[in-house]
Write a structure and sequence with these properties.
Layout lengths: L11 H15 L3 E11 L6 E6 L4 E6 L16 E11 L4 E11 L4 H15 L17 E6 L4 H13 L4 E6 L7 H18 L6 E6 L13 H8 L5 E5 L7 H5 L2 E2 L3 H8 L3 H36 L4 H42 L2 H44 L1 H6 L4 E3 L17 E5 L4 E5 L3
Helix pairs in contact: 3-7, 4-5, 8-9
């Protein structure tokens, strides 16, 4: 007897689903080289094209968001390298490639473009140290050209908070990758210079920065428009793009290159603990210098005293003058210290006034007041309908039949319950029903 079970019958959609799963599991990530054909770009922003060679072809889908990272304009007939996963479009049963990235074919196409622009700008003298602008001795306000949501601005602000919290930072938000990033970066550098020249901002330096990434991700910083904006900047420009091993055209053109965004922040910020230690050292040196000077004066005075036999009054005057100078020096030092302490107290008071907790308390009190007004208004809105309802109930009670019966009237109805309003239609002996304010009675019509 044959006990083998019959094969399972699949629907078309089930078969396509299994085939799609199998393809995606087996070819989760592949790189394919071929010639672009039948490229279409519908309004959805997706790209659909065929990749072919001399013997075969495959349909490809390149979805919006992914294709925005392509830094060249692909055309039919162009050789490209694409990376993605093999899948199946279940609706038609078409075998296809879901593309995640695209590069022009040929090893190191981006690297070749990078090297070509680098050589051109080097020949033009844009990298020469003679053209580099030095950083100002005192930096108080920095224009940071970067993404407001990226890791770079977080690292930069963390370093400034640790080393020099009083540094003024103005973030000029831009895209740091994609096809529109280079134009935004160049525009931001130009805008910072315009504001500085017009007196709207008091920038001391521009920091152009972003976190690490692939050569494709960092490409906006390798475009000529960004290099021109940095080269033409009247403000000193510091470039901090990527990690330590990453180099971009903006690094070479900028006045100073920092290995990372954090390194740039450390370069541009003094260390408050280091300055405090240096101040203490200078204070000690000054005190020692003054003590040595006083000691030399005393030695000179003693020498003169020994050389001159009886200039006692003059020596006393010189000694008194020396003591006076010492007292004045001490007072001047103390006065200087007091002034610095007062400036520190004033700065702390100003910082306390800017504390957001004060503003939050004020807003909380305003919210409480508005809440009370709202509750009072709601009570008034609810009270008016209650009063109107009570008045209507009183009117209904006044106009109702119960009040009429209470004044001595009665409601007469026949044996069918119909109200009798006209006595001319009654017959002798007809039974009627009367309802009074209190109780009822049966009536019989007489003559």
């Amino acid at each position: 007897m044959n006990t083998q079970e019959p094969p399972q019958t699949l629907s078309v959609s089930q078969l396509n689903g299994l085939a799609k799963q199998l393809l995606e599991d087996c070819f989760a990530q592949v790189t394919v080289s071929g010639e672009l054909s039948t490229l279409s770009r519908p309004s959805s922003g997706h790209w659909y094209f065929t990749l072919k060679d001399d013997r075969a072809q495959i349909r490809c889908a390149f979805f919006k968001g992914r294709n925005a990272r392509v830094n060249f304009s692909p055309e039919p007939g162009q050789q490209v390298n694409v990376r993605g996963k093999v899948s199946l479009y279940e609706g038609r049963g078409d075998y296809q490639l879901i593309v995640e990235s695209m590069q022009a074919a040929g090893a190191g196409a981006l690297a070749q473009a990078f090297e070509k622009l680098k050589q051109e700008l080097m020949a033009a003298g844009w990298f020469d140290s003679a053209n580099k602008k030095p950083l100002p001795d005192s930096i108080r306000h920095i224009a940071v050209v970067t993404s407001p949501t990226g890791a770079a601005i977080h690292d930069i602000l963390s370093v400034f908070q640790r080393r020099w919290p009083s540094m003024q930072i103005s973030v000029l938000p831009v895209l740091v990758q994609g096809e529109h990033a280079a134009q935004q970066i160049a525009k931001a550098v130009l805008q910072a210079n315009i504001w500085q020249s017009e007196g709207k901002k008091d920038f001391d330096v521009i920091l152009v920065s972003r976190g690490g990434g692939s050569l494709e991700d960092l490409w906006p910083f390798n475009e000529r428009i960004v290099a021109e904006a940095i080269h033409n900047s009247s403000l000193p420009v510091v470039s901090a793009v990527g990690h330590e091993v990453d180099f971009s055209i903006s690094d070479f053109v900028a006045d100073i290159r920092a290995a990372t965004p954090s390194a740039a922040a450390e370069l541009l910020s003094p260390d408050q603990s280091e300055l405090t230690s240096r101040l203490q050292l200078l204070k000690g040196r000054l005190a020692n210098s003054q003590l040595r000077r006083i000691s030399r004066w005393r030695e000179q005075l003693l020498s003169l005293t020994q050389r001159v036999r009886d200039p006692r009054s003059q020596l006393r005057e010189q000694s008194q003058r020396l003591d006076d100078l010492e007292i004045r020096l001490g007072r001047q030092w103390q006065q200087t210290q007091n002034q610095r302490q007062q400036r520190l107290v004033a700065a702390n008071q100003q910082l306390a006034l800017l504390n957001p907790e004060r503003q939050l308390k004020t807003k909380h009190r305003e919210l409480q007041a508005l809440r009370g007004r709202l509750q009072h208004a709601m009570k008034q809105q609810l009270q008016q309908p209650r009063i109107a309802l009570k008045n209507m109930q009183q009117q209904l009670k006044t106009l109702g039949p119960e009040q009429t019966l209470h004044r001595g009237y009665a409601i007469i109805s026949d044996h069918g319950g119909a109200i009798v309003r006209d006595a001319t239609g009654l017959e002798k002996g007809q039974k009627l029903h009367a309802k009074f304010s209190k109780g009822t009675a049966e009536l019989i019509v007489g003559e």
